[in-house]
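As a warm-up, study this chain.
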Amino acid sequence: MKIFVAGGTGAIGRPLLDQLLAKGHNVVAMTRSQETAQSLTAQGIEPAIADVFDPDSVKVAIAHAQPEVVIEQLTALPRTYSRESMSAAAPLNTRIRLEGGANVLAAAQAAGVRRYLRQSIAFWGIPGAGLADEETPLSLDASPAVAADARLVTEIEHRLSESNLEGIALRYGFFYGSGTWFNPDGDVAQQLRQQQFPIVGNGEGVWSWLHIEDAAIATVAAAEQGNPGVYLIVDDQPLAVRDWLPAFARSLNAPPPPQVSVEDALKMEGGTDIVYYQTQMRGASNAKAKRELNFQPRSLEWIVNTTVALG
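Now compare it with the structure written out below.
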């Protein structure tokens, strides 16, 4: 198939382009940079130079490419994972996902694209027992930053479902692997070495993980055979913070993470969001992706025979 990728130079975009080429697809990737365009050409990828905030240039790029499928992976996330960096990046990240995403979606519709995939988020299911699935409501009333992202996800997924395309929203878990915050050379690893990433309270918040290359593999499978709708793309090992964080530290030969009370965490900037992540986050189920996409994620690299209680 001919597949157009918007956001092909980020953490997931790079392995995604590799996977698409490996599966024999004809790939076009959008970029603003002539230098990046030359690099894409050297990889065997057709570059499409356009500014995602310029709807006319995006429309021309997709109309010229005439793809069967568009995959949108637009984000503007910082290299560092901290409250300050995430807050600073939030306005542009929101704009690129809402405004930029709207421009790509409109251009795809105008060009007669058949199928449209876009990046979404797996970890905003309302807190509760067991794992969230695709039908679990999102945490629209959670802590401020979490609720804002849940509303953003709701809006972009609704926009896609209301289009006349075969729309697929891929709700990814927390990325780890090359180029991510949770790689041994990533920002969270550095924070752990410096004891700057504590366990808050009981650490019962459950995180669902996803290797960045598995994210790419699942995305290609969804492009090829997925049904319209939502897929939770996560691995088989949802883990409480109190389990995964010390294990990650051990894998790095870093000291054990410090403990911080909920009361002290709430005094920090963005404390209610920190407490949500650490004590209320709900894990997600990949049953649908396994069933419909034959998704077979790898085991979390720094965990051996550890799982969270799901009762």
